[in-house]
Specification:
Blueprint lengths: L2 H25 L10 H18 L11 H25 L5
Helix pairs in contact: 1-2, 1-3, 2-3
C-alpha cells in the first residue's frame, strides 16, 4: 500500500470526524435531547473523549464551552498536515 494513499485516507477520515463533531456541537445546543437514544449516544461516545481533552484546557466561560473551537482548529491543522504530506508523497516531493 502506498504511503500517500494511506495519508489521504487518514485525511478523509478526519473530514468525516469533523462532520460528526459539528453534529455533536449543534446537538449540544438542545439541552432537552434524550442522550439515551442509540444514535445520539453513539455520536456522544465518539466525540466526547476528543472534546474532553480540550475541555480540560479551557474551562467554560459564562456557560459557553469554547473548547470545541480549539478542538476544531487542532483537527483542521492535523487534516491539513496529512493532506499536504499525502500530496508531497504523491508528487514525489520527498524523493520516494
Amino acid at each position: 500500500m502506498d504511503l500517500s494513499f494511506l495519508l489521504g485516507v487518514m485525511a478523509q477520515t478526519l473530514s468525516i470526524y469533523t462532520v460528526v463533531l459539528i453534529v455533536r456541537v449543534l446537538l449540544s445546543w438542545f439541552p432537552n435531547l434524550d442522550w439515551g437514544n442509540p444514535v445520539l449516544s453513539a455520536v456522544s461516545s465518539i466525540t466526547d473523549p476528543y472534546l474532553n481533552v480540550f475541555r480540560g484546557l479551557i474551562p467554560p466561560l459564562g456557560g459557553l464551552d469554547l473548547s470545541a473551537i480549539i478542538a476544531f482548529i487542532a483537527l483542521n491543522l492535523l487534516q491539513s498536515l496529512l493532506s499536504s504530506a499525502s500530496a508531497s508523497f504523491y508528487s514525489g516531493g520527498f524523493g520516494y
